[in-house]
Design a protein that fits this description.
The protein has 492 residues and is mostly helical. It has helices at residues 3-20, 25-40, 59-68, 177-182, 189-193, 203-215, 229-235, 243-246, 249-261, 269-274, 283-293, 345-348, 380-388, 390-396, 411-428, 441-452, 462-465, and strands at residues 144-145, 151-154, 157-159, 317-318, 357-358.
Length: 492
Protein backbone atom coordinates (compact mmCIF):
# COMPACT_ATOMS: atom_id res chain seq x y z
CA UNK A 1 0.00 0.00 0.00
CA UNK A 2 1.52 3.46 -0.94
CA UNK A 3 2.68 5.57 1.96
CA UNK A 4 0.04 8.30 1.49
CA UNK A 5 -2.78 5.77 1.19
CA UNK A 6 -1.49 3.95 4.25
CA UNK A 7 -1.29 7.23 6.15
CA UNK A 8 -4.84 8.19 5.23
CA UNK A 9 -6.13 4.77 6.25
CA UNK A 10 -4.22 4.84 9.53
CA UNK A 11 -5.30 8.39 10.27
CA UNK A 12 -8.96 7.62 9.61
CA UNK A 13 -8.78 4.62 11.93
CA UNK A 14 -7.05 6.74 14.57
CA UNK A 15 -9.75 9.37 14.29
CA UNK A 16 -12.47 6.81 14.90
CA UNK A 17 -10.63 5.47 17.94
CA UNK A 18 -9.82 8.90 19.30
CA UNK A 19 -13.41 10.11 18.96
CA UNK A 20 -14.58 7.01 20.81
CA UNK A 21 -12.13 7.85 23.59
CA UNK A 22 -13.80 11.19 24.34
CA UNK A 23 -11.32 13.29 22.36
CA UNK A 24 -12.53 16.58 20.95
CA UNK A 25 -14.43 16.24 17.65
CA UNK A 26 -12.90 19.60 16.68
CA UNK A 27 -9.37 18.22 17.05
CA UNK A 28 -10.34 15.13 15.10
CA UNK A 29 -11.73 17.26 12.26
CA UNK A 30 -8.47 19.25 12.12
CA UNK A 31 -6.46 16.06 11.62
CA UNK A 32 -8.93 14.94 8.99
CA UNK A 33 -8.72 18.26 7.12
CA UNK A 34 -4.93 18.22 7.29
CA UNK A 35 -4.89 14.70 5.88
CA UNK A 36 -6.78 16.01 2.88
CA UNK A 37 -4.44 18.98 2.45
CA UNK A 38 -1.40 16.70 2.68
CA UNK A 39 -2.81 14.60 -0.13
CA UNK A 40 -3.84 17.63 -2.19
CA UNK A 41 -0.30 19.02 -1.98
CA UNK A 42 1.33 15.65 -2.70
CA UNK A 43 3.38 15.71 0.48
CA UNK A 44 5.22 12.78 2.02
CA UNK A 45 7.55 14.74 4.31
CA UNK A 46 10.74 13.78 2.49
CA UNK A 47 12.18 16.50 0.21
CA UNK A 48 15.10 14.30 -0.93
CA UNK A 49 13.02 12.48 -3.54
CA UNK A 50 15.47 9.61 -3.57
CA UNK A 51 18.63 11.73 -3.71
CA UNK A 52 21.43 10.66 -1.37
CA UNK A 53 23.44 13.43 0.32
CA UNK A 54 27.12 13.03 1.16
CA UNK A 55 28.08 11.58 4.53
CA UNK A 56 29.69 13.94 7.02
CA UNK A 57 32.17 11.32 8.24
CA UNK A 58 33.85 10.80 4.86
CA UNK A 59 37.39 12.05 4.07
CA UNK A 60 36.04 14.48 1.46
CA UNK A 61 33.54 15.99 3.90
CA UNK A 62 36.26 16.21 6.55
CA UNK A 63 38.52 18.12 4.17
CA UNK A 64 35.65 20.39 3.18
CA UNK A 65 34.78 21.05 6.80
CA UNK A 66 38.34 22.05 7.64
CA UNK A 67 38.52 24.35 4.63
CA UNK A 68 35.12 25.81 5.49
CA UNK A 69 36.40 26.76 8.96
CA UNK A 70 39.81 27.97 7.82
CA UNK A 71 40.56 31.68 7.72
CA UNK A 72 43.41 30.80 5.36
CA UNK A 73 40.82 31.13 2.59
CA UNK A 74 40.22 34.74 3.60
CA UNK A 75 42.38 37.19 1.69
CA UNK A 76 43.79 38.79 4.85
CA UNK A 77 43.18 35.60 6.88
CA UNK A 78 40.58 37.08 9.21
CA UNK A 79 37.37 35.46 7.88
CA UNK A 80 36.30 31.96 6.86
CA UNK A 81 33.17 30.53 5.25
CA UNK A 82 31.95 29.63 8.75
CA UNK A 83 32.25 33.26 9.83
CA UNK A 84 28.87 33.90 8.20
CA UNK A 85 27.59 30.30 8.05
CA UNK A 86 28.21 28.56 11.35
CA UNK A 87 26.17 25.39 12.04
CA UNK A 88 25.49 26.33 15.67
CA UNK A 89 23.99 29.60 14.39
CA UNK A 90 21.54 27.86 12.08
CA UNK A 91 23.96 27.72 9.18
CA UNK A 92 24.06 31.52 9.22
CA UNK A 93 25.42 34.15 11.61
CA UNK A 94 22.37 35.20 13.72
CA UNK A 95 22.88 38.81 12.62
CA UNK A 96 20.51 41.12 10.77
CA UNK A 97 23.32 41.73 8.29
CA UNK A 98 26.79 40.19 8.31
CA UNK A 99 30.11 41.60 9.34
CA UNK A 100 32.60 39.68 7.25
CA UNK A 101 36.20 40.91 7.19
CA UNK A 102 37.81 43.30 9.67
CA UNK A 103 35.69 42.58 12.70
CA UNK A 104 36.89 43.88 16.04
CA UNK A 105 37.15 40.27 17.23
CA UNK A 106 37.47 38.02 14.19
CA UNK A 107 36.55 34.88 16.16
CA UNK A 108 33.42 36.32 17.75
CA UNK A 109 30.19 35.38 15.98
CA UNK A 110 26.56 36.33 16.48
CA UNK A 111 25.07 39.41 18.17
CA UNK A 112 27.79 41.84 19.17
CA UNK A 113 30.10 41.12 16.22
CA UNK A 114 31.12 44.58 15.04
CA UNK A 115 33.18 46.13 12.27
CA UNK A 116 36.52 47.59 13.33
CA UNK A 117 36.22 51.41 13.39
CA UNK A 118 39.68 51.64 11.83
CA UNK A 119 38.84 49.38 8.91
CA UNK A 120 38.36 50.43 5.32
CA UNK A 121 34.78 51.43 4.59
CA UNK A 122 33.72 51.71 8.21
CA UNK A 123 30.36 53.45 8.54
CA UNK A 124 29.28 52.19 11.96
CA UNK A 125 27.22 49.29 10.69
CA UNK A 126 27.37 45.86 9.07
CA UNK A 127 29.43 45.52 5.93
CA UNK A 128 27.55 42.93 3.85
CA UNK A 129 24.31 44.18 2.24
CA UNK A 130 22.24 40.98 2.45
CA UNK A 131 21.38 38.59 5.25
CA UNK A 132 23.42 35.37 5.43
CA UNK A 133 21.28 32.55 4.03
CA UNK A 134 21.57 29.24 5.81
CA UNK A 135 23.77 26.54 4.33
CA UNK A 136 21.49 23.89 5.83
CA UNK A 137 19.85 21.77 3.12
CA UNK A 138 21.86 23.46 0.38
CA UNK A 139 21.93 20.01 -1.20
CA UNK A 140 18.19 20.23 -1.88
CA UNK A 141 18.22 23.34 -4.06
CA UNK A 142 17.80 22.52 -7.74
CA UNK A 143 17.45 25.87 -9.49
CA UNK A 144 19.64 28.48 -7.83
CA UNK A 145 21.42 29.76 -4.75
CA UNK A 146 21.87 33.24 -3.23
CA UNK A 147 18.99 35.63 -2.61
CA UNK A 148 18.97 36.84 -6.20
CA UNK A 149 19.75 33.47 -7.79
CA UNK A 150 23.01 34.66 -9.29
CA UNK A 151 24.24 31.07 -9.23
CA UNK A 152 21.66 29.31 -11.38
CA UNK A 153 21.23 26.06 -13.27
CA UNK A 154 20.76 26.96 -16.94
CA UNK A 155 20.82 25.13 -20.24
CA UNK A 156 24.33 23.83 -20.72
CA UNK A 157 25.59 24.27 -17.17
CA UNK A 158 25.54 26.79 -14.34
CA UNK A 159 25.34 30.57 -14.67
CA UNK A 160 27.50 32.59 -12.25
CA UNK A 161 28.60 36.22 -11.87
CA UNK A 162 31.68 35.26 -13.89
CA UNK A 163 29.52 34.28 -16.88
CA UNK A 164 29.64 36.31 -20.08
CA UNK A 165 26.11 37.65 -19.64
CA UNK A 166 22.87 36.12 -18.43
CA UNK A 167 22.07 33.22 -18.90
CA UNK A 168 25.37 32.03 -20.37
CA UNK A 169 26.92 29.10 -18.46
CA UNK A 170 30.22 29.65 -16.68
CA UNK A 171 32.67 26.98 -17.94
CA UNK A 172 34.50 27.09 -14.59
CA UNK A 173 31.38 26.89 -12.42
CA UNK A 174 31.88 23.30 -11.31
CA UNK A 175 29.36 20.48 -11.35
CA UNK A 176 27.00 21.46 -8.50
CA UNK A 177 25.35 24.59 -7.18
CA UNK A 178 27.23 24.11 -3.92
CA UNK A 179 30.62 24.09 -5.66
CA UNK A 180 29.67 27.13 -7.73
CA UNK A 181 28.50 29.03 -4.67
CA UNK A 182 31.74 28.35 -2.82
CA UNK A 183 33.72 30.11 -5.55
CA UNK A 184 32.38 33.58 -4.76
CA UNK A 185 32.54 34.60 -1.08
CA UNK A 186 36.35 34.44 -1.33
CA UNK A 187 36.24 37.08 -4.09
CA UNK A 188 34.05 39.53 -2.17
CA UNK A 189 35.90 42.35 -0.44
CA UNK A 190 33.30 42.63 2.31
CA UNK A 191 32.86 38.90 2.89
CA UNK A 192 36.28 37.19 2.76
CA UNK A 193 38.83 38.73 0.37
CA UNK A 194 39.13 42.16 2.05
CA UNK A 195 40.69 45.04 0.19
CA UNK A 196 44.45 44.53 -0.08
CA UNK A 197 44.73 40.90 -1.18
CA UNK A 198 44.96 40.73 -5.00
CA UNK A 199 43.51 44.25 -5.10
CA UNK A 200 42.28 45.11 -8.58
CA UNK A 201 42.84 41.63 -9.97
CA UNK A 202 40.30 39.23 -11.45
CA UNK A 203 38.37 36.63 -9.49
CA UNK A 204 40.46 33.82 -10.95
CA UNK A 205 43.62 35.54 -9.70
CA UNK A 206 42.17 35.57 -6.19
CA UNK A 207 41.26 31.89 -6.37
CA UNK A 208 44.59 30.80 -7.81
CA UNK A 209 46.46 32.70 -5.10
CA UNK A 210 44.36 31.12 -2.35
CA UNK A 211 44.95 27.64 -3.74
CA UNK A 212 48.69 28.35 -3.88
CA UNK A 213 48.55 29.52 -0.25
CA UNK A 214 46.84 26.30 0.88
CA UNK A 215 49.28 24.29 -1.23
CA UNK A 216 52.32 26.27 -0.05
CA UNK A 217 53.62 26.80 -3.56
CA UNK A 218 54.03 29.48 -6.19
CA UNK A 219 52.67 32.88 -5.29
CA UNK A 220 51.33 31.54 -2.00
CA UNK A 221 54.49 29.82 -0.80
CA UNK A 222 55.31 30.53 2.83
CA UNK A 223 52.10 32.41 3.63
CA UNK A 224 50.99 29.65 6.02
CA UNK A 225 52.82 26.77 7.68
CA UNK A 226 50.02 24.18 7.68
CA UNK A 227 50.46 21.00 5.66
CA UNK A 228 47.15 20.43 3.87
CA UNK A 229 48.51 17.96 1.31
CA UNK A 230 47.81 14.70 3.23
CA UNK A 231 44.17 15.69 3.64
CA UNK A 232 43.84 16.27 -0.11
CA UNK A 233 45.65 13.03 -0.90
CA UNK A 234 43.22 11.09 1.29
CA UNK A 235 40.08 12.87 0.11
CA UNK A 236 40.96 12.57 -3.58
CA UNK A 237 42.37 9.04 -3.17
CA UNK A 238 45.76 9.95 -4.63
CA UNK A 239 48.45 9.19 -2.01
CA UNK A 240 51.27 10.22 -4.36
CA UNK A 241 49.61 13.39 -5.66
CA UNK A 242 51.52 16.64 -5.36
CA UNK A 243 50.26 19.89 -3.95
CA UNK A 244 50.36 21.48 -7.39
CA UNK A 245 48.18 18.72 -8.82
CA UNK A 246 45.77 18.25 -5.93
CA UNK A 247 45.44 21.58 -4.15
CA UNK A 248 43.64 23.49 -6.87
CA UNK A 249 40.73 25.81 -6.40
CA UNK A 250 38.32 23.47 -8.22
CA UNK A 251 39.30 20.74 -5.74
CA UNK A 252 38.94 23.16 -2.81
CA UNK A 253 35.38 24.07 -3.75
CA UNK A 254 34.53 20.45 -4.55
CA UNK A 255 35.44 19.55 -0.98
CA UNK A 256 33.64 22.55 0.51
CA UNK A 257 30.55 21.82 -1.57
CA UNK A 258 30.65 18.18 -0.47
CA UNK A 259 30.73 19.26 3.17
CA UNK A 260 27.94 21.79 2.69
CA UNK A 261 25.82 19.19 0.93
CA UNK A 262 26.18 16.91 3.96
CA UNK A 263 24.24 19.46 6.06
CA UNK A 264 20.86 17.86 5.41
CA UNK A 265 18.45 18.37 8.32
CA UNK A 266 14.93 17.32 7.36
CA UNK A 267 13.69 15.12 10.23
CA UNK A 268 11.08 17.55 11.49
CA UNK A 269 8.02 17.05 13.70
CA UNK A 270 5.88 17.95 10.66
CA UNK A 271 7.46 15.12 8.69
CA UNK A 272 6.79 12.79 11.61
CA UNK A 273 3.17 13.91 11.58
CA UNK A 274 2.83 13.31 7.84
CA UNK A 275 4.25 9.83 8.31
CA UNK A 276 1.47 8.97 10.72
CA UNK A 277 2.24 10.23 14.23
CA UNK A 278 -0.65 12.63 14.86
CA UNK A 279 0.83 13.56 18.26
CA UNK A 280 4.10 14.78 16.68
CA UNK A 281 2.91 18.38 16.53
CA UNK A 282 0.76 20.48 18.84
CA UNK A 283 -2.84 21.46 18.31
CA UNK A 284 -1.63 25.03 17.73
CA UNK A 285 0.74 23.83 14.99
CA UNK A 286 -2.14 21.95 13.35
CA UNK A 287 -4.27 25.08 13.33
CA UNK A 288 -1.28 26.96 11.93
CA UNK A 289 -0.94 24.38 9.17
CA UNK A 290 -4.56 24.98 8.17
CA UNK A 291 -3.86 28.71 7.92
CA UNK A 292 -0.71 27.96 5.94
CA UNK A 293 -2.26 25.63 3.39
CA UNK A 294 -5.82 26.86 3.02
CA UNK A 295 -6.84 29.62 0.63
CA UNK A 296 -8.29 32.91 1.91
CA UNK A 297 -11.70 31.67 0.75
CA UNK A 298 -11.34 28.86 3.29
CA UNK A 299 -9.93 31.08 6.02
CA UNK A 300 -6.26 30.54 5.23
CA UNK A 301 -3.30 32.55 3.98
CA UNK A 302 -2.21 30.51 0.91
CA UNK A 303 1.39 30.52 2.12
CA UNK A 304 1.77 27.34 0.08
CA UNK A 305 1.50 29.40 -3.12
CA UNK A 306 5.23 30.06 -2.80
CA UNK A 307 6.36 27.82 0.08
CA UNK A 308 5.32 24.64 -1.68
CA UNK A 309 6.26 20.98 -1.53
CA UNK A 310 8.19 19.13 1.15
CA UNK A 311 11.07 21.63 0.74
CA UNK A 312 8.67 24.54 1.32
CA UNK A 313 9.79 26.62 -1.64
CA UNK A 314 8.86 27.01 -5.28
CA UNK A 315 12.49 28.07 -5.92
CA UNK A 316 11.11 31.11 -7.74
CA UNK A 317 11.52 34.84 -7.15
CA UNK A 318 8.85 37.13 -5.72
CA UNK A 319 8.38 40.65 -4.44
CA UNK A 320 7.35 40.25 -0.80
CA UNK A 321 8.01 43.90 0.18
CA UNK A 322 10.02 43.32 3.34
CA UNK A 323 11.94 46.33 4.70
CA UNK A 324 15.12 47.32 2.90
CA UNK A 325 17.82 48.07 5.46
CA UNK A 326 21.59 48.14 5.40
CA UNK A 327 24.01 49.41 2.77
CA UNK A 328 21.99 48.04 -0.13
CA UNK A 329 23.53 46.99 -3.43
CA UNK A 330 24.22 50.40 -4.93
CA UNK A 331 20.94 50.62 -6.81
CA UNK A 332 18.89 53.80 -7.12
CA UNK A 333 15.39 54.57 -8.36
CA UNK A 334 15.75 58.32 -8.88
CA UNK A 335 19.38 59.10 -8.05
CA UNK A 336 18.58 60.43 -4.59
CA UNK A 337 20.58 57.64 -2.96
CA UNK A 338 22.33 54.42 -3.96
CA UNK A 339 21.32 52.16 -1.09
CA UNK A 340 18.47 50.29 -2.77
CA UNK A 341 18.63 46.61 -3.73
CA UNK A 342 16.90 45.64 -6.97
CA UNK A 343 17.19 41.92 -6.20
CA UNK A 344 16.62 39.53 -9.09
CA UNK A 345 16.69 42.37 -11.63
CA UNK A 346 20.40 42.72 -10.95
CA UNK A 347 20.86 39.22 -12.44
CA UNK A 348 18.37 39.13 -15.29
CA UNK A 349 18.19 42.81 -16.23
CA UNK A 350 14.40 42.46 -16.43
CA UNK A 351 12.43 45.34 -14.90
CA UNK A 352 9.64 43.00 -13.79
CA UNK A 353 12.19 41.23 -11.55
CA UNK A 354 12.90 44.38 -9.52
CA UNK A 355 12.76 43.72 -5.75
CA UNK A 356 12.10 40.01 -6.29
CA UNK A 357 14.05 37.60 -4.09
CA UNK A 358 14.23 33.83 -3.96
CA UNK A 359 11.58 32.07 -1.90
CA UNK A 360 13.48 30.65 1.08
CA UNK A 361 12.84 27.13 2.28
CA UNK A 362 11.02 27.06 5.61
CA UNK A 363 12.74 23.91 6.82
CA UNK A 364 14.58 24.80 10.05
CA UNK A 365 13.15 28.31 9.91
CA UNK A 366 12.99 28.56 13.71
CA UNK A 367 16.80 28.34 13.82
CA UNK A 368 17.77 30.50 10.86
CA UNK A 369 16.80 34.04 11.82
CA UNK A 370 16.90 36.96 11.48
CA UNK A 371 14.81 36.63 8.33
CA UNK A 372 14.31 38.19 4.87
CA UNK A 373 16.91 39.30 2.33
CA UNK A 374 18.02 42.21 4.51
CA UNK A 375 17.43 40.49 7.85
CA UNK A 376 14.99 43.13 9.01
CA UNK A 377 12.62 40.70 10.75
CA UNK A 378 14.11 39.56 14.05
CA UNK A 379 11.31 37.35 15.36
CA UNK A 380 8.92 34.94 13.68
CA UNK A 381 5.78 36.62 15.00
CA UNK A 382 6.77 39.93 13.40
CA UNK A 383 7.69 38.12 10.22
CA UNK A 384 4.27 36.45 10.02
CA UNK A 385 2.37 39.67 10.75
CA UNK A 386 4.33 41.62 8.15
CA UNK A 387 3.97 38.94 5.49
CA UNK A 388 0.20 38.86 6.02
CA UNK A 389 -0.25 42.63 5.63
CA UNK A 390 2.92 44.33 4.38
CA UNK A 391 1.30 47.66 3.50
CA UNK A 392 -0.07 48.23 7.00
CA UNK A 393 2.90 46.72 8.84
CA UNK A 394 5.40 48.84 6.90
CA UNK A 395 3.95 52.07 8.27
CA UNK A 396 4.24 50.80 11.84
CA UNK A 397 7.64 49.17 11.37
CA UNK A 398 10.27 50.70 13.66
CA UNK A 399 13.58 50.89 11.82
CA UNK A 400 15.08 52.46 14.94
CA UNK A 401 14.60 49.20 16.86
CA UNK A 402 17.11 47.36 14.66
CA UNK A 403 20.57 46.75 16.15
CA UNK A 404 22.56 49.91 16.75
CA UNK A 405 24.58 50.81 13.67
CA UNK A 406 22.28 49.18 11.12
CA UNK A 407 22.18 51.58 8.18
CA UNK A 408 18.60 52.94 8.01
CA UNK A 409 19.01 56.49 6.68
CA UNK A 410 17.32 55.67 3.38
CA UNK A 411 15.29 52.67 4.53
CA UNK A 412 11.87 54.31 4.60
CA UNK A 413 12.35 55.81 1.14
CA UNK A 414 13.70 52.58 -0.32
CA UNK A 415 10.97 50.42 1.20
CA UNK A 416 8.34 52.92 0.00
CA UNK A 417 9.60 52.32 -3.54
CA UNK A 418 9.18 48.59 -2.99
CA UNK A 419 5.63 49.15 -1.74
CA UNK A 420 4.83 51.14 -4.85
CA UNK A 421 5.85 48.16 -6.99
CA UNK A 422 3.78 45.83 -4.83
CA UNK A 423 0.74 48.06 -5.33
CA UNK A 424 1.25 47.82 -9.09
CA UNK A 425 1.44 44.02 -8.85
CA UNK A 426 -1.72 43.87 -6.74
CA UNK A 427 -3.55 46.06 -9.27
CA UNK A 428 -2.40 43.80 -12.11
CA UNK A 429 -3.18 40.65 -10.10
CA UNK A 430 0.38 39.47 -10.75
CA UNK A 431 1.41 38.69 -7.16
CA UNK A 432 1.00 35.39 -5.34
CA UNK A 433 0.68 37.17 -2.00
CA UNK A 434 -2.69 36.63 -0.36
CA UNK A 435 -4.94 39.66 0.11
CA UNK A 436 -3.96 41.77 3.09
CA UNK A 437 -5.16 40.44 6.41
CA UNK A 438 -4.58 41.59 9.96
CA UNK A 439 -4.00 38.37 11.87
CA UNK A 440 -5.14 37.96 15.45
CA UNK A 441 -2.59 37.17 18.12
CA UNK A 442 -3.85 33.59 18.29
CA UNK A 443 -3.55 33.17 14.52
CA UNK A 444 0.00 34.47 14.59
CA UNK A 445 0.86 32.11 17.45
CA UNK A 446 -0.63 29.17 15.55
CA UNK A 447 1.35 29.90 12.38
CA UNK A 448 4.55 30.32 14.42
CA UNK A 449 3.83 26.98 16.10
CA UNK A 450 3.53 25.37 12.67
CA UNK A 451 6.74 27.01 11.43
CA UNK A 452 8.53 25.76 14.54
CA UNK A 453 7.36 22.23 13.69
CA UNK A 454 9.32 22.52 10.43
CA UNK A 455 12.64 22.54 12.30
CA UNK A 456 14.78 19.44 12.73
CA UNK A 457 15.59 19.23 16.48
CA UNK A 458 19.23 18.49 15.65
CA UNK A 459 19.84 22.04 14.44
CA UNK A 460 18.97 23.33 17.90
CA UNK A 461 21.36 20.91 19.63
CA UNK A 462 25.09 21.82 19.62
CA UNK A 463 25.99 18.26 20.57
CA UNK A 464 24.14 16.88 17.54
CA UNK A 465 25.88 19.47 15.34
CA UNK A 466 29.38 18.67 16.58
CA UNK A 467 30.26 16.42 13.58
CA UNK A 468 29.88 19.51 11.36
CA UNK A 469 32.13 21.78 13.46
CA UNK A 470 35.73 22.30 12.42
CA UNK A 471 38.15 21.57 15.27
CA UNK A 472 41.89 21.11 15.50
CA UNK A 473 42.71 17.56 16.55
CA UNK A 474 45.43 14.94 16.41
CA UNK A 475 44.85 14.47 12.68
CA UNK A 476 45.46 18.03 11.55
CA UNK A 477 46.12 21.47 13.03
CA UNK A 478 45.07 24.62 11.20
CA UNK A 479 46.89 27.68 12.46
CA UNK A 480 44.09 29.84 11.02
CA UNK A 481 41.13 27.86 12.32
CA UNK A 482 38.02 29.90 13.13
CA UNK A 483 37.82 29.02 16.81
CA UNK A 484 34.45 30.69 17.22
CA UNK A 485 32.87 32.04 20.38
CA UNK A 486 29.83 34.18 21.14
CA UNK A 487 29.63 37.51 22.92
CA UNK A 488 29.89 35.79 26.28
CA UNK A 489 33.08 33.98 25.23
CA UNK A 490 31.28 30.63 25.06
CA UNK A 491 32.85 28.39 22.45
CA UNK A 492 30.56 27.60 19.54
Amino acid sequence: MPRKTLFTFALTAALIVSCNENSSPIEASVDEELAGLILDNNLDGDPLNGAVPPAIGSPMADLGKRLFFSKSLGGEMDASCATCHHPVLGGGDALVLPVGVHAIDENMLGPGRLHDPGAQGFDGGPTVPRNSPTTFNLFLWQRSVFWDGRIETVDGGIFTPDSAGYPTPDPLAGSTLSESQARFPVTSGEEMRAFVFEDGNANEDVRSHLAARIGNNGIGAGEITDNWLPLFQTAFEDPMGTAVDLITFPNIVEAIGFYEDSQVFINTPWRNYIEGNEDAISDAAKRGALLFYNSPAKGGMSCVNCHSGDFFTDEDFHLAAFPQVGRGKGDSVDGSNNSADFGRQRVTGILADRYAFRTPSLLNVAATGPWTHAGAMEDLSSLVRYHANPEAEFFSFSFANLPVGTQITDSFENTSDVMFELAKQRAANSTLLAPNRSLSDSEVADIVAFLSALTDPRVLDPVALEPWIGRNDGTFTDSNLLDAHDGNLNQL
